Hints:
The chain has 365 residues and is of the alpha+beta class. The chain folds into 2 domains: 55-234; 247-364, Immunoglobulin-like (Sandwich). The chain is built from 5 helices and 8 strands, in the order αααααββββββββ. The protein has helices at 35-95, 102-125, 133-162, 166-201, 223-234, and strands at residues 247-255, 266-269, 272-283, 289-299, 307-316, 321-331, 338-344, 357-364. The strands form 2 sheets. A 5-stranded mixed β-sheet has the order 2-8-7-4-5. A 3-stranded antiparallel β-sheet has the order 1-3-6, with no helix packed on it. β4 (289-299) and β5 (307-316) form a beta hairpin.
Amino acid sequence: MSFFEDEEEEPFYEPPPVRERRTGRKSRGPGGKSPLARVLVILAAVVVLVLATSLGIKSCLDRKKAGEFHDYFDAVASVTKDSDAIGKQLSDMLQNPNPNMRQSLENKLGDFQTASDKIVERAKAIDAPDQFKQEDEWFIASMQVRSRGLKGLQPALLNALGAQDNQAGAAQVSEELLILLTSDVSYDEFFYQPCENELKNEQINDVKVPESKFLADPAIASEQSAVTLLEKLKGGPQAQVSGLHDVDLVSLHVQPSGMRVKVDSQNSLKASDSLAFTVEIENIGESTETDVPVSLTLTAPGQPTPQKVDGKVPSIAPNEHKTISLTGLAAQAGPQVAILKASCGPVPGQTNLDGTTAQYQIVFS
């Protein structure tokens, strides 16, 4: 081969193609994220949305619950405020007694009882949330105990003021005051404390359970305090019940017609197996009288044994008129005259019996 001859060209070397490494990953999308990554992002967003919604719903429910609790305890506070006001007035009168306030105390006790009965009805009308249904029963019961104590205190005090033995009367007064004291204990132990604990469990801090106290000082209910009360109301340890004691019979009416039965003439009434009458009496004395007896006695022709019905007027103040209905007498029609006798009293200390009885002539048709 000649030096000048062209050398044979060697073929151009090309490297073999490199295989793409398989990693198991899918191809990325145009955004540079794999489909799995996009799914995870979406799931995270959904979880965040669900949590936010749940928290929003819970917050809304919590606000609603707190609003219900606010309304309930506000209603309870309105009731206890009025009840406590009665207790404060009573406590002030019992802690600072004097003979001049004796009559006003007797009258006030009746007013307190009427007001307390209305408070019980208000307590019953409150709609308690489900979380406090059981405690609400104790709240109502506490108000009922106060009403019961006031109901018993008035006659207990009046009887004690009418008795010479202060010690015996004081025991009865103390018993009724202890009932009032019990209402404070039941309210605190079975309503206030459990409600406070429930609010803590519910993690509600801006709702307050109202406190309530009827008697300012538990010592008021002691028997010795009652003795002191009676002594001061009577004017001293040796003071006796003074003043005129006198009740009179005012009138007798037939029911249901309302016709007045007259003393000075013959009365014609319709025969019945259950006659009904209304007896009116008046306290013309100077002291409030309690448990005043009233009776009707019918002596009819052909009946050898008179029929009698009895009743009592619980309390009657000086110059006050009270009526009582009596039923149970029976009479048959006939031409002969029957005698109906009405009577009231006498009350302890009453010496003048004029006006306590009356007789009526009756013909039953």
